[in-house]
Design a protein that fits this description.
Elements lengths: L22 H20 L3 H9 L9 H17 L3 H6 L6 H14 L2 H18 L1 H9 L6
């Protein structure tokens, strides 16, 4: 008979978590992405800017400064775009779950303008990616943005 006891192996234990990179290295990478995003926003290539901001999100660190720096970058792109439909239609489907996580982070800020934008994007992203995108975003407790 199979052992029904949950040994907690599916949950990331605080004692066993290992940072894969130093926070300074992650911040330097985000600063490089920031320069690239700003260049893309000036062109304007909003979808490419969003993909750049979402790529290589700092999920394997617990350093809040790293996570906040990347959120600021994603937020910058979201606030710069006016064509929400066009932004999402061109977005790489592999990044839908990451964007959904950032939308929930934006909703957690409590800022009215940010929340309004995140809710609009949430609705559009749900229509495109389905309920699975939401479930993966809220159930992934190890790769938080």
């Amino acid at each position: 008979m199979a052992d029904d006891e949950d040994n907690g192996s599916s949950v990331l234990d605080a004692d066993t978590f290992v940072e894969t990179e130093a926070p300074a290295v992650i911040i330097a990478r985000i600063e490089g992405k920031s320069r690239q995003v700003e260049r893309l926003l000036r062109i304007p290539q909003y979808t490419e800017a969003l993909e750049t901001a979402l790529m290589d999100a700092p999920t394997q660190t617990r350093d809040e400064q790293c996570k906040a720096a990347n959120w600021i970058l994603v937020h910058r792109v979201l606030m710069a775009t006016k064509d929400v439909d066009g932004l999402l239609l061109g977005l790489n489907p592999e990044l839908h779950d990451v964007l959904m996580k950032y939308l929930y982070r934006g909703l957690a800020t409590g800022d009215r303008i940010t929340c309004d934008l995140c809710l609009r994007l949430h609705e559009k992203l749900f229509d495109m990616a389905g309920i699975g995108c939401i479930m993966r975003a809220i159930s992934d407790t190890q790769n938080l943005v």
